[in-house]
Amino acid sequence: MSDDLDTLAEQIHTILRMAPGSAPDHRALHAKGVVATGAFTAGGGLAGRTAAAHLVEGTVPATVRFSHPGGDPGVSDVLPSARGMAVKLRAPAGSHDLVTVPSPAFLARDGASFVELLRARAPDPETGAPDPARMGAYLEAHPEALPAIEAVLTAKVAASYATLAYNSLHTFFLVDDAGRRIPVRFTWTPVAGVAHLDDASDRNPDFLAQELADRLASGPAAFDLVVHLGTDDDPTDDPTAIWPERPTVVAGRLELRAIDPDAEPIIFDPTNVPAGVELPPGDEILALRRLVYGHSYANRTA
Ligand code: HEM
Fold first, then answer.
1. What is the pLDDT of residues 232-286, one digit of tens each?
2. Separation between Cα atoms, residue 60 and residue 90, nearest integer Å
3. I need a surface site. Which of 246, 255, 288, 302 has the fewest CB within 10 A?
4. Residue of 88, 186, 293 to test ligand 1 pocket, by largest number of atoms within 8 Å of CB
């Protein structure tokens, strides 16, 4: 691991911890959340495409954390914004983390521009709000951030954690027993369909955790693992780059059955993949995530 990346990761963690509302005993981002447990059952759609057995057949236990993206654990669920879905599949050969968000793309393609963005959107000490001119200048220099920014600006209030589709954004490679590799991205697609609230004025600020508990009391919440099969032409090192529509297969279904109030401390690391799945060479954001999540975990469990 390069010193540069280590330094960047520390710098990013420090900046995140300076944000208003950040709490040292919580995650530096995605601070508010709820954990549920269930199981993932592979349906055979990836047969012959990966040596990771749990993605091809059988059922493995799963732990899932849904979250609000910000660093303030007291943030209201009534605010329109993205959410997060972090999944840990507990396969016999080792765990496999799939960490996802509803946005179609990430905000930055490398660590230095992510730092620039964090600085551009930091509250102005005089007004307490981000300076639109600084954000404007950032976007002019970094048009690759526009799809993610548009998703932020057009976000609605989630009706339920169980009614959003969540994307990997990064590319991973599936590797079969013969060593053949194909690039893939994936989406957790809610079986209940996607739903937002047009009017959230009657909801309380913590309604999403309660809604999930109520939902699970009357039956499982399910997501299909939809895998997008890429081509050699698709970008594999850049989470700001949206792929064209690609053929998909359903790898299997995740069914959540109960809230787990005792799961913390738990960490979901998007680089934690088993044999049969490989990380994309050259994706600096993914490499940084592992380091920054480590700092955040160390901080919140100290
Ligand atoms: C350089 C880019 C990024 C940085 C610095 C960053 C930072 C963080 C941090 C500090 C945490 C808390 C980690 C912990 O304490 O366990 C976190 C959690 C999370 N991040 Fe990121 N993130 C980045 C990119 C992304 C991307 C591209 C995605 C979407 C695919 C994403 C989705 C999530 C989710 C869903 C969680 C919650 C995980 C959980 O519930 O434990 N992040 N992020």
1. 999 999 999 999 999 999 999 999 999 999 999 999 999 999 999 999 999 999 9
2. 6
3. 302
4. 293
Q: Return the closest-CA partner of residue 299 out of 13, 11, 2.
A: 13
Whether the CB-CB separation of 22 and 71 falls below 8 Å is answered with yes
Beta strands 157-158 and 172-175, pairing class: unpaired
| pLDDT tens track for 154-173 | 999 999 999 999 999 999 99
Report which of 89, 38, 41, 39 is spatially closest to residue 250, judged by C-alpha positions.
41
CB atoms closer than 10 angstroms to residue 138: 19
pLDDT computed for residue 243 by the predictor: 98
Rounded CA-CA distance 293/298 in Å is: 9
Rounded distance, CA 280 to CA 83, Å? 24
The set of protein residues with a Cβ atom below 6 angstroms from ligand 1 is 12, 16, 27-30, 33, 65, 67, 84, 86, 99-101, 106, 114, 168-169, 239, 267-268, 285, 288-289, 292-293, 296-297, 300
Helices (H), the chain: 3-17, 111-120, 132-141, 146-153, 207-217, 284-301
Residue 151 burial (CB count, 10 A): 18
Average pLDDT, the chain: 97
The continuous run of DSSP H or E covering 173 comes out as strand 172-175
The first and second tokens of residue 271, run together, are 């680089």
Q: What angle do CA 181, 183, 187 make, to 5 degrees?
A: 135
- Both tokens of 219, joined, read 């039956």
Sign, CA torsion 240/286/129/72:
positive
